[in-house]
Amino acid sequence: MLRNTFAKLLAVGALALALSACGGKDNNADQADNDTPVSQEIVIRASNWQFDQETYTIPKDTPVRIKLENEAGAHGVQIEGAGVKLNNSKKSKVVTLAAGTYDIKCNIVCGDGHLKMKAKLVVS
Questions:
Q1: d(C-alpha 53, C-alpha 37), whole Å
Q2: What's the CA dihedral at 95, 99, 100, 101 to 10 degrees?
Q3: What pLDDT shows up at residue 7?
Q4: 56-65: per-residue pLDDT in tens?
Q5: What's the whole-model pTM score?
Q6: Where are the alpha helices (DSSP H) in 1-124?
Q7: pLDDT range class, residue 98, cuts 50, 70, 90
Q8: Max Cα separation, the chain?
Q9: How far apart are the first and last CA of the chain?
Q10: 51: which residues sit within 8 A by CB, 6+ positions away?
Q11: Is the sign of the CA dihedral 41, 61, 121, 21 positive or negative?
């Protein structure tokens, strides 16, 4: 009985985390991103516990659309220091970044391999 209660609490907690990671939808920001002219687009493809590349590269000081495609499972993308958070409700964002290396991680708890789901964005 205690084991059953613990499993239910764990499931409720995981659901709450997943829902809070999704956040609210900001239609104005989505529209602005769709109207912004870009010189390049990168697509980050996510599947179970991995991104399709270890490193993505974009030019500095140039508008670039970053797009998320989930190929398997439910995943999100957060690019630390770049103001990018993508998920099922917001699938792309236009950014203009200074030169540097930015950490990419999955921001939706997606299972046992979630913490290993990392990549780099190199801006040069």
A1: 25
A2: 50
A3: 53
A4: 999 999 999 9
A5: 0.71
A6: 2-22, 27-35
A7: very high
A8: 58
A9: 57
A10: 44, 45, 104, 106, 117, 118, 119
A11: negative
Rounded Cα distance between 27 and 8, Å, is: 35
How confident is the model at residue 36, as a pLDDT? Answer: 75
- Neighbouring residues of 40: CB distance < 8 A, sequence distance ≥ 6: 58, 59, 62, 64, 65
Structure confidence by residue, pLDDT tens digits, 35-55: 778 889 999 999 988 999 999
And the tokens for 90? 């917001």
Kindly state the tokens that stand for 38. 């870009």
Residue 93 forms beta bridges with which residues? Answer: 66
